[in-house]
UniProtKB/TrEMBL annotation:
GO terms for biological process: catechol-containing compound metabolic process. GO terms for molecular function: alcohol dehydrogenase (NAD+) activity; catechol 1,2-dioxygenase activity; ferric iron binding; maleylacetate reductase activity. Residues 379-451 form the Catechol dioxygenase N-terminal domain. Residues 164-346 form the Fe-containing alcohol dehydrogenase-like C-terminal domain. Its cofactor is Fe(3+). Residues 10-152 form the Alcohol dehydrogenase iron-type/glycerol dehydrogenase GldA domain. It comes from Micromonospora acroterricola. This is Alcohol dehydrogenase.
Length: 651
């Protein structure tokens, strides 16, 4: 699991039939007794049930809560609250009553006990939207979030069927967007899947039988779970679109959610195939966006923005507004994409321009391919192949890959293979330039603490370099700044390793290895040494140079197409073998070389960057040098071979 910060809202939830009768106890639990009861006239009956629980004079009712929480109404309610000296707010209703309770809470600091009668989730968020002089402003603060939520299914039995559908899809939207939220985590994932599955199951039952208490209860529980997702993780594209359509074009909240959600899911489907699979499975449909669209239309819910009152001429502005601000979405949001999405939603078309996302077929295909490896005898091979096809299929699905794109990829790989030979390792270069070689190196060689980090071997190593006595100049008189290398090879115990075999190779001052230069009779700037009794090795060469990796093949095309340079930071290669120790393949980089931050093969590691000093004056071995010379000192620490060899298993 990725890094997760999970913070739950401190709200207390009381869920169950007839829980309206517990308002008095819950108010007492908060240490309060003088209630301002906020409702709308439609909730008169429930309000009376609450009033009956309190002694005369302890409760005063304000039942003029209105949509969009007008500040004018909040001020009227404040007068009532002050006159009565209320010390707690109780709200029964949907967005209007809960919005007013939040508006009063943020002004007075009073606690809130809310009894939601829709599935909107407002009761669990710290967000308040208010209107003054026709302008809506939204704010978020911890004290806005109600302290206690009472979910009583009885309060939802009379919800009209139309509102039931749109409100439940509103809840479903919270769960769906939680699944691909940047903050998604194990807790909200589980809540979201359960909420979606409950809505998919219970909503058709309620539409057939609006008084069905079990199904109503299931929907209310789903609203609670989905609301918890809404209150815990950030929402994405769908909520942004609904915000634009509601805020700028005044479309009704829940109905807008209902029309937009299948289209927002279709837009994100290629970038979040796993999430779409979970939604589809939870709803029991083959494909999430079209399955949801079909479910909504079979239940008589709205499927077109035109029927909600949006003018066709406003689509371009809505698309521009939706694309203007940045917010998290699995698939990058473009104005063109929003225009297509909103146009489909306006006409009431099938989501995704009527093109169905073949998620079920893709899943079936992958299952067949994975199954085809079922008889593989070696468990590790089985695991690697199954994982490979999962990632390849995921790559194809996630990017909605076209045949032309796939064939271009195949052509690239084919040419990479055709160019590869014993002398030209274009495939290894491809792996290097994608950072894959370094990833494998990190996994295999960075598990020992306190030892020298490794780095990629590269294509210029030649097996079996000539054994060379210590002190030799392997530069063979080549032009360049003389470099004296003095290194020590020690064990991770700190003990010097005598007789360690150290292969070294490096570029010349122009960045070429001997094997790249037909005119050079090698081996030059490459040798095999042995450490002395103190684990020491001393030899001369010249300063290496940065150099480009070969660009005359497919890898070069890739670098050009992605505007990447081809250079490696200057370095010297070492391959060290010592008895009883793990082989170390590594490189040392002069601290003053360029490209340390952008090495073309991602081979640089901080501990391998070394000052190649400029001591001046005479050399320690008395070699006469007219001009500048440099010195490289380093200690290589090798890991001991573990006493009992361990192998990685597919476990
Ligand atoms: C090298 O350091 O020699 C090298 C490593 C990876 C790719 C190309 C060159
Ligand atoms: Fe190199």
């Amino acid at each position: 699991m990725d890094n997760v910060v999970y913070q739950t809202a401190p709200a207390r939830v009381v869920f169950g039939p007839r829980s309206t009768d517990q308002v008095h106890d819950e108010v007492g639990r908060l240490g309060r007794s003088r209630v301002l009861l906020i409702t709308t006239p439609a909730m008169r009956e429930a309000a009376a049930r609450v009033e009956a629980q309190f002694p005369p004079g302890a409760i005063v009712r304000f039942d003029d809560a209105q949509m969009h929480t007008p500040v004018k109404i909040t001020e009227q309610a404040l007068v009532v609250l002050n006159a009565h000296d209320s010390d707690v707010l109780v709200a029964i209703g949907g967005g209007s009553a809960i919005g007013l309770a939040k508006a009063l809470a943020v002004r007075t600091g009073l606690d809130q006990v809310v009894l939601p009668t829709t599935y909107s989730g407002s009761e669990v968020t710290p967000v308040l939207g208010e209107t003054a002089d026709g302008v809506k402003t939204t704010r978020s603060a911890p004290e806005i979030r109600p302290e206690t939520v009472i979910y009583d299914v009885d309060l939802t039995l009379s919800m009209p069927v139309g509102l039931t559908v749109t409100s439940a899809v509103n809840a479903l939207a919270h769960a769906a967007e939680a699944l691909y939220s940047a903050q998604a985590n194990a807790v909200t994932d589980a809540l979201a899947v359960r909420a979606i599955s409950a809505i998919g199951h219970a909503l058709p039952v309620v539409v057939q039988d609006p008084q069905n208490r079990d199904a109503r209860s299931e929907l209310l529980e789903a609203a609670w779970l989905a609301g918890t997702c809404l209150g815990t993780v950030g929402m994405g594209l769908h909520h942004k679109l609904c915000h634009v359509l509601g805020g700028t074009f005044d479309l009704p909240h829940a109905a807008t959610h209902t029309v937009v959600l299948p289209h927002a899911l279709a837009y994100n489907a290629p970038a979040a195939p796993g999430v779409m699979r979970r939604i589809a499975e939870a709803l029991g449909v083959p494909d999430a966006p079209s399955g949801l669209h079909d479910l909504i239309s079979s239940l008589g819910g709205p499927t077109s923005l035109a029927t909600l009152g949006l003018a066709e001429g406003d689509l371009a502005r809505a698309a521009a507004l939706a694309a203007a601000s940045s917010y998290p979405s699995p698939r990058p949001v473009t104005e063109k994409g929003m225009r297509a999405l909103l146009t489909d939603a306006w006409h009431g078309r099938q989501p995704g321009g009527g093109r169905r996302y073949p998620g079920a077929e893709l899943r079936q295909l992958l299952a067949e391919v994975e199954g085809s490896f079922g008889d593989t005898a070696q468990p590790r091979l089985h695991a690697l192949l199954a994982s490979l096809v999962r990632h390849l299929h995921g790559y194809v699905a996630e990017n909605d890959l076209t045949e032309a794109e796939w064939m271009a990829g195949i052509d690239f790989l084919t040419r990479t293979g055709q160019m590869s030979s014993a002398k030209r390792q274009e495939f290894i270069l491809f792996s290097d330039s994608l950072g894959v070689s370094s990833a494998v190196d990190i996994l295999g060689n960075s598990r020992n603490t306190g030892t020298t980090p490794s780095a990629v071997l590269g294509p210029f190593y030649v097996e079996g370099p000539p054994e060379t006595p210590q002190g030799t100049d392997i530069g063979a008189g080549l032009d360049g700044v003389p470099l004296l290398t003095e290194v020590r090879v020690v064990s991770d115990t700190g003990e010097p390793l005598a007789g360690a075999v150290v292969d070294v190779w490096q570029s010349n001052k122009d960045g070429f290895y001997d094997v790249q230069l037909p005119e050079v009779e090698g081996p030059v700037l490459r040798a095999r040494f042995r450490t002395d009794d103190d684990g020491l090795l001393r030899y001369w060469s010249i300063l290496p140079s940065d150099y480009p990796i070969p660009t005359d093949g497919p890898v070069g095309e890739m670098l050009a197409a992605t505007n990447r340079h081809a250079y490696r930071a200057a370095h010297v290669h070492f391959l060290i073998n010592a008895v009883g120790h793990q082989q170390l393949i590594t490189q040392l980089f002069p601290a003053d070389t360029t490209y340390l931050d952008s090495d073309a093969v991602f081979g640089v590691k901080q501990p391998l960057i070394v000052e190649f000093t400029n001591p001046g004056g005479s050399t320690p071995d008395g070699r006469e040098i007219a001009g500048e010379w440099r010195r490289l000192d380093y200690t290589f620490t090798l890991a001991r071979v573990p006493a009992v060899a361990t192998t990685r298993t597919s476990g």
